[in-house]
Amino acid sequence: MKMTKTVPAATAVPVYLKRFLFSAVLFAASAAYAQYPPTPDAVYGKLFEDVQLSGVFGDSKTFPDAVPNKSPKDILKDYDKARGKAGFSLAEFVKLDFTLPGQPSSAAVAAAPDAQAHTRALWPVLERPADKPQEGSSLLALPYPYIVPGGRFREIYYWDSYFTMLGLAECGRPDLMDNMVKNFVYLINTYGHIPNGNRTYYLSRSQPPFFTLMAKLLAKTKHEAALPADNIAAIEKEYQFWMDGADKLKKDGDAERRVVKAAGAVLNRYWDDNPVPRQESYREDAATARAASGKSKNVYRNIRAAAESGMDFSSRWFADGKTLASIETTDIIPVDLNCLLYDVEMTLGEAYKASQPEKSRMYLARAESRKKAVNELMYDSARKFYSDYNFKKRALTGRLTLAGMFPFFLNLAPQERAAGAADVIKADFLKAGGVVTSLAETGQQWDLPNGWPPLQWITVTGLLNYNQKEPAYAIARRWTEVNEHVFLRTGKMMEKYNVVNTALEAGGGEYPGQDGFGWTNGVYLALKALLARP
């Protein structure tokens, strides 16, 4: 990538963005990313900056997703000539030279008699065919069809896809599930990991590593006794991405990219290799950095690391528990991430038992070490619930969220802790419409009063794994009922729901509520099937 031709001169750059542009040049030039396709800021330089800071579009994701109508080189030449002329309109220039993304809606589905029929009819609306590469587009072309979440989310999303696949399994669509898994194998083999989504601007981060669970769900749906060899190889390659730098950790407190040493074990944190504003939330991140009193580089990385967590944004990442400007994601060892990687290690250990026993023992030993550390470091014995651990402060964060149910979801919590966790769920998290994400009301979308589909499924499954049936079925009933009530009022399946006051819409975040919606459909259908079983 040759960014020097398109990055604007320092004299034309707002003061608070000087550090960003310098970091962006270093990032683009790094050997680690030389093989990646260029991001929109690298392609469009000054034009990108001007559009994103101008407020031409209400949604900062619009321009990064736009497709040029001619070569980017010609567009930049035209922009350089036109922008200084009297009467120049940036909005008109962009609309002339780019095809802007649309927002497909569930309104495209004919009226259905109920939420289940509507949800099943949505799959063709949300399905995308194999992609064709387009010059200047941020889309990473995928070789097989896939399901998008819906609304502004026009591409595949990593952890969303597992919960979407739960619904595809209920609908008898192993063919589409198989295509989605093949796309993720392709991404791992091409880029070394699964990015947040199939956009160039998502390549510097991933999302919670659910690929192993997807591969196992697909095998179960297809009644396969073992995982295919290519899926095992992809699981191992993705694991190496998450564990990069582990050999450099010498003592507790050492950290390198996504690995941290604590309690004598190698654990993981969320991270992003690019400490600059997110391209799809450029203006918003610049404003947050200004509010953080000059700590922009650290703030950008922590914002991006929270985006890698999927829970962007939540009080669980904030030093003060209230404000985004205090974000400290990279100081935190998250309970959910480490449970997911425990499952990856266990899966690889089992997969290699017969063929490579020494490798199997290595993975199983790592899993046991991680399990011990999670249970020692991340359990709050006073509150009887799991929490995140701040390795810089050597203490629990003290903020309870449904991430604390992952040890039960993935079966590494001791049985004797289940009743206490169930009591916490019933007393603190269970609301009229399901379980609330956190116990703090901050205005962020991953906090109270919002409930999210993946966390309903994780909580219900975790409780059932430990024979806590009563709260599990209460959550499933309340959540599916709120899905149905909102559908009857609006004709939509939403990305998230207000579970405290079910008559109100969910709020918070950087964009309005989105309908479609991939993971809502998947979890709804899976929970309806669960409730229908004797």
Description:
By secondary structure, the chain is mostly helical. It has a domain at 10-99. The chain has helices at residues 15-29, 40-54, 62-65, 72-82, 90-97, 115-126, 158-170, 174-191, 211-221, 229-242, 282-291, 296-309, 335-351, 357-377, 406-409, 418-429, 453-465, 469-490, 518-532; strands at residues 67-68, 98-99, 127-128, 146-147, 255-256, 259-262, 265-268, 332-333, 379-380, 385-386, 389-390, 395-396, 430-431, 434-435, 450-451, 497-498. Helix 7 (158-170) packs parallel to helix 9 and helix 13 (335-351) runs antiparallel to helix 14. The longest helix is centred in the last third of the chain and has 22 residues, at 469-490. The chain is globular, with a radius of gyration of 23 Å. The chain starts with 14 loop residues before the first helix and ends with a helix. Residues 1-31 have low confidence and may be disordered.
User: Helix share of residues?
Assistant: 40-55%
The multimeric state of the shown protein is: single chain
Q: What is the typical, i.e. mean, pLDDT?
A: 91
- Spatial separation of the terminal alpha carbons: 58 Å
What radius of gyration results from the CA coordinates? 23 Å
Shape: globular
Strand content: 5-15%
Structure summary, number of beta strands: 16
Give the biggest sheet.
3 strands, antiparallel
Low-confidence stretches: 1-31
The helix/strand class is mainly alpha
Tally of helical segments:
19
- The largest sheet has its strands arranged as 5-6-7
